[in-house]
Design brief:
Helices cover 24% and strands 17% of the residues. By secondary structure, the protein is of the alpha/beta class. The protein has one domain: Rossmann fold, CATH 3.40.50.1820.
Amino acid sequence: MLHWKEQDVAVNGLRLHVYRAGDEARPAVVLSHGVTDSGLCWPDVAPALAEAYHVVAYDARNHGRSGHTSEVYGWEELGDDEAGLIRALGLERVALVGHSMGAGTAAACAARHPELVRCAVLEDPPWMNTPPAPPPGATDRGAAYRKLQAMSAEELVAQARRDTPCGTRPSCRPGPRPKDSSTSPSPNSTGPRSRRGRRRPRPSPALCCCSPASRSWAPA
């Protein structure tokens, strides 16, 4: 089992909870999770990466053991949080890996702070022209998150298998949860929003195939 070293870091007026593993002298890979998840959601990926890299994961604002805020926030704030974390830990030219909301976070970080990023891997970034419809029985996304918070781990896995069949893959199982906080956003959260109230903004034009942040990374 991977041994995480945990710490709290002050970033942009918030407390972010950080998990670190692997040799800190090696190149760093920063993992950013999706909405309703936490930094501990990488049970298969993190151990594999830790064999060759310094792995850093963290709970995003309003998630897990990080600080919660009632302020409206969007990709810019999430990207700046990640950049602040990289600077606070004294990391240089990191590789970013993000899933869903974390992919949008990684893209925003790379676009706004290219000097910190060597490359970015975006898994299923949530970019679309219109917001997705809320789940049946939920009138808004905040209600949908509160419904998820009330479900047990077994119920969540069963729903995930119904919604997106995944057979018996090892990754389709309850992951570890923080000891003293929910892995979901605060009950009042409705997920990332831009200041204009639009969810799921299009990719930043600042991040393109010719930018330094998007080039492949193959350190010696």
